[in-house]
Amino acid sequence: MNSYAKDKAKEINAILTTEVIVKDPLEAKGYQQFQVLNLFLDTLVRKDPNIGIVSGIAKKWSVSEDQTIFTFTLSEKAFFHNSEKITAEDVVFSFGRHLNVGSGSAIVSYLKNAVDKIVIVDSQTVQFVLKGAYPPFLELIAMPGFGIISRKSTGKNIIGSGPYTFESDDIKKWCLKKVPSYQFSTSNISKYCFQIERDVDKTIHSLNTQDVNLAMGSPLEVALSKDLKSDFVSSPTFSLVTTHIILNHSNEYLKKLKNRALIADIAQFIKAEPGILTKFDDPLDTYLPRGIMPKSYYIPAHIPKKLPKIVGKEKLRIVFPYGIFLKESVEKIVSAYKHAGFDVTFINVKGKELLKPIAEGNFDLIFIPYQGVISDPDGYLDLLDPKSILSKAQLPTQDLLKELTSSRFLANKDERLKNYEKIFHKWEQSFSVIPFSQNSIPIVHNKEIKLPNLNFSFHLNLRELNITDEK
Amino acid sequence: MKNSLLEYYKRAQKKTAIAVIVSGFFFFIVSLFFQYQEKQTVLNQQAQYIEKSIRNDMLTGNKLYVYEICRSLFSDSSLESLKILKNAEVYCDFKREAVSHFFLSVSVPILFNPLEAAVNENILGSVELKLNAEVILINLLISVICLAFIIIAFYFALRKLHTSIKEDIVVPLDRFSYIMTTNPRDETSVEALKDDTKFSEMLSLTSSYIALIGRLKVVENKLTEESKRAALADLSRQVSHDIRSPLSALNMVMSQLPQLSEEKRVLIRNSVQRINDIANSLLEKGTTSREINDSNTDKKLEVILLGSLIDSIVSEKRIQFRDRINIEIVTDIGDAFGVFARANANELKRILSNLINNSVEAFGNGGGKVTVSLRGQKETTSITVSDTGKGIPKNILSKLLAGEKGVSHGKEGTDSGSGIGIFHAKSTIESFGGRFDINTKEGTGTMISMILPREKAPKWFAEKIEISEGQMVIAVDDDQSIHNIWQGCFNCFDLQKSKVQLLNFSSSEVFEKWFNDNSHLALNGLFLMDYELLGQELTGLSLIEKYKIGAKSILVTSRYDEKDIYERCEHLGARVLPKSMAGFVPLIFTKSLLKPDVILIDDDELIHMSWEMVAKENQKSYVGFRNYNDFLKEAEKIDPSAMIFIDSNLGTEKPGELIAKEIFEMGFHNVFLSTGYNADSFQNMPWIKGVVGKSFPADE
Q: At CA B218, angle to CA B216 and CA B223, rounded to 5?
C-alpha cells in the first residue's frame, strides 16, 4: 500500500455555515470561504502555526534596504494542478485580478493600501514595490485570498496551485482531494468534503451519526450542546474575531456623543453581567482585539455600577446576527436596553437575511462580528471604510483612516504601532463603534482530529489539521 | 612459594591505588563530558531562541529591529559573542571585552522554510553564538585538586594501615612463631604477646594457644596415669590367670562329691562363683580404659531375683565371719519373696558384700547384728543393710559420699580403706536408676538403703504355689532338707481337712515307678522337682519332659538363674523356684467349687422329690434349695457356670424373675425360670436364659 492509499482513509467531512464554497479568490468574502481556498491555492509565502512566515511558492526573497522592495524567487517545485510550472507571470496575474477595477475582491483594499506595483523580473522572479516600508507585508500576501492561480484560468475554471484540488462541483457537497504531484509538505488528510448547514439540531445530528467529523463556524449552541456524543470536543480556535456594536449615525439620537456614550455605558454594564458571554468569548474594551497591538493599547473600560437610564423614551432597533450569541444572551441584552429606558425592537437573523437591514440601514445598533485578515491593525479597517457594506451607518471614520494612512509605512514596527495606538485611542472616544467581545470561534471536531498550535495564527487553518492514528 | 602478609598487602595497596586513580580519572572525564554537554545544550537552546526572536524581522528585512533585538539579547545573556548574519551581511556582531581562550560555539541557520532541507537557497542567514566555557576549566581544576587530595589522603591511610599490620599483626605473629619453635610451653611469653597487638583476633589466638597448652598438660597427665594403670592391669591379669586353673580343678572335684549335703554344695558352688567373680573383677581392673569400655558389655543390666541374691551373699558372709560368734548376720525378706529388680548381679553382690564387711568392721573387735532386709513396693524395691555398730561421724559421712580417698565406713578415723566403697556403691546404684541413702547415728548404728526400680517377675518364675482341695503334691529331691522344708510348709494346712496329699521321692527311679503305677492320680498332681539328682541318670527337668508334666511342675533348683535351664522350663511350660526360696514361697489353697448338673430353687417339696428322683435315674447330680436364703448361704461355693432353675413364684413378695436377676448379677449366667406360666410373660428379661416347665430339664 502506497502512502497515498494509506492516507485515503483520513478524510475531513466538515459542516460550514458560509453561503457558498467558491474557487475564485475574487468571490471569497468570509473566512470559511478563504479556508477552503487555502486548501486549493498556494501563496507566495505561508504562515506556519509553529514557525511563523515560511516560504511557499517563493522559495526565497530579498528585501531592499528601505524595506519597500521585496524580490521573490519562485520555487522550481511549484506547479499548478495542470502540471504547468508557476511563473512570475502567473503571480502578477493572480494579484492583478484583485487590483482590476470592479474586481469585487473583498481583500483588495489591504493590497492597495501597501503595494504600489508588481514587476516581473524574469520568469522565476517577481518584485513587489511597496508604497512604503510595511512590516506586515509578508503576512498580507500569505492571506489565502492572494493564492496563486494560473493565468490560463478562465471564468469558473480556476486552475489552482495548492495541495488539494476540487473533486466535484456538487452544490451540496464540495470535496477536495490531495494532489499526488504536490511537492511541498502537507498534512496527512487525503480528502476534505464540506457541506453547508446552519441548523443547530441538524449539525448535532450529523456529528453524532458520524456523517461529519468537524463543524466550523456553527452557532454556539452546537459547541455547547449536551447532546453531543463524547467522541467530539469543542475547541476554541483563538481566532482574532471581534464583535462590535455599530451605531447608525443617521439616527438623530445617536448623532450626539453623550447619547452614544450612554449606549456604550449600557453595553459595558451588560457585558460584565454573568451569562452574557460564553466560555468562548471575552469582554473587549478596544476596537482592536488582543494580540494585535502593544499592551499599552488595551486600557480597561469603565464599567458602571448601575444600569444607566435615559431621560424620556427613545426607540432603538437592534440587529443581532444569528449564532454569535446564545438566545438567552440576546434576550438579556435587549432587556437591559429596555430597562435603560429604550423602546427596543430587535431581530436575530441568519446569513443573507442579515445583509438586508445592513444594506437598508434599518438598524440603530447592529452587532457585527468581524475577523481581521491579518494580525495587524490594517486587517481590521475594512468595516470602517465609508464604502463598506456598513456605509448606511455613516460612521465618521474619514479622519481616522487618513491619520492611519500617514502612519502606515514605517520601517520601525514598534513606532508604527505606537502611532496607531494614539490614533485609535482618540477615535474610540467618539463611541461610533462600541467594542463588545473578542470571540474564539469554536470548532467541534472528532477526537481523532488533531488541531495545530495556533500561536502564530489568528485563525484556524484547515490545512494544518491532521488525523491521529491513536485510538 | 607463599608470600608474606606484608608483601601481599603491598601488592594489594598498589592495585587499590591504581584503581582509585583510574576511577578518579574516569570520574573526572565523565564529569567533564557532562558539563560540556550541559553547556552545549544551553547554548543550542539560546541560539534557537534568538533565531525565533529575529526570524520574522529577518524575513521582512527589518535590519534595525534585528539589531535592537540582538543587542538586547546579548546584554541580557552571558554569551561571549553574538553574531547575526544575512548571507554575507552582518546584521549584528556583539563581543565581550575580555575574550576568553576557552569557549563553546554554535551556529544556527535562519531558513526561509525550516520545514524544508537546509540547502543553500533555503538559507537566509545564521545566528552564531559563543559561550565562555572557562567555568568548565575551573571545575576541571577543582576536580583535579580534589582528586589529588583524595589520593594523598588515601596514601596516608594506606601507610597507616601498613604500619598497623606490621606492628600489630606481623611482628606478634613472628614472635609467636619463634616461641612455638623454641619453647612452645612458655605461657608467659605467649601471654606477653597480648600487649603487642591491638587486634582481638590476635588476642583470641594467644588465648586459644594458652588453653591448648593447658589441655596438652592434662592429656600428658592422663597418659602418665594410663601407663600406671597398664602396669597394674598386667599384674591383675596375671593374678586372674593364675586363679583360673585351681578354680577349674575345684569345680571339677565339687561335682564329684555326692556325699555332701545340698546346702553345702550350694555354698561351695556360690563360693567358687564368687571367687570366679573376683577373678573377673581383677581382670577388669587390669584392663585399660578402652578395654573397660569394651568390658562394659559384661556389666549390662539384667532382671535379678533380689531375695535369692541377698540370701546367697548373706550365706557367704556368715561363713566368712563364722569365727566371730558374737556377730549375727540375718536376712529379712518378709513378703518380698518374688521381688525382681533390674541391676547387674555381680555389682550388686559386690556392693552388698562390701557393705556387710563395712558393718562388721564397724563392730571393731566387739559384736553386733547386721540385718539385710528386702522390701517390695508397687514400683520400687528397697534393700537395706543395717548394723548396730558405732555409726558414722557426720564429717566422715560427707567425705564418704564424696568418694574422698583414705576414708571408709567401718574404718573411720583410720588411714585404711580406699574410701571408694561407699562412693562406688552410691554411683553404681544410681547408674541402675536407683537411689542410695545412708542413715547413721553415732553410737547406735548405720542403715544404708538402696532403692531400685522394681521389675515384673519373669514368666518362668514361680511366684506362688496354688494347691486345690484334695490335690496330690509330689516332691522329687535328693536332699532330705528340702523334703523337710516342704513338709513344714504343707503343715500349715490341715492336710486331713484339705485332703491335700504330699508324696516325697529322693530318687528318680522310685518316682518313675510310682508315676507309672498311679498315672491316673498323677494327672491332677503338682510336681516339685529338683534339677540336680546326684548320682542319678536323669535330672528333674528330664523327668518333666519325659512324663509331659510341664504345666503341673515347678523346678526347684539353686541353678535357677542359668539361662539354658529357665529357657527350657519356659519351653516345657514349667515354672522355676530358687531352692533357697523354698521356705518363702507362698502356698495358696483353694477349695473345689460345687457344680452339680442341676440346681433348683423352689418352695414345693414335691417338685424337689420329683427332680431328685429323675436326676438319680439319669446319673445327674442335683442340689435343691427350698428358698432363696438357703441358696445365698451356699452361693459362693457354687460354680458360676452351674445351671440354676428358679420357680417363678417362691411364695415370697419377690417374684422369681427378680430373684433370677439378682442371681445373674452375682455372676451366674445359666439362670432359667421353672414355671407353669407361658414364656411370653417373661419377655425382655436378658438375665433369664430360658423358661422351662416344672419337669426335670432334659439334656438339651
A: 95
Separation between Cα atoms, residue B52 and residue B405, nearest integer Å: 114
Q: Please list every residue in chain B whose beta carbon sits closer than 8 Å to the beta carbon of residue A54.
A: 112-115
Mean pLDDT, chain B, integer: 83
Axis-axis angle for helices B345-362, B420-431 (nearest 10)? 150
DSSP-derived pairing of the beta strands A241-247 and A365-371: antiparallel
Q: In whole angstroms, what is the distance from residue A133 CA to residue A1 CA?
A: 51
The DSSP call for residue A299 is: P
In this complex, is the C-beta atom of A77 within 8 Å of any C-beta atom belonging to chain B?
A: no
Q: What angle do CA A402, A404, A407 make, to 5 degrees?
A: 115
The C-alpha cell of B374 is what? Answer: 528386702
Query: What residues of chain B have any CB closer than 8 angstroms to a CB in chain A?
Result: 55-56, 59-65, 112-116, 121-122, 124
Closest CA in chain A for residue B54: A52
Lowest mean pLDDT among A447-456, B346-355, B487-496, B662-671: B487-496
Strands B575-578, A58-63: pairing is unpaired
Residue from B243, B249, B314 nearest B281 by CA: B243
Residue of A52, A73, A412 lying closest to B56 (CB–CB): A52
Distance CA B4, CA A267 (A): 102
Q: Do A55 and B60 touch (CB under 8 A)?
A: no
Q: Nearest CA to CA, how far is A206 from chain B (Å)?
A: 36
Instruction: Quickly list H helices, A151-235.
Output: 200-208, 220-223
> Predicted ipTM?
0.80
Chain A residues with CB under 8 Å of B63 CB are: 65
Flag whether pLDDT at B385 surpasses 80: yes
Question: Which residue of B60, B65, B116 is in closest CB contact with A138?
Answer: B60
Distance from CA of A70 to the nearest CA of B (A): 8
Residue A24 — very low, low, confident or very high, per pLDDT cuts 50/70/90? very high
Inter-chain touch A61–B112, beta carbons under 8 Å: yes
3 state SS of B694:
coil
User: What pLDDT was estimated at residue B283?
Assistant: 62
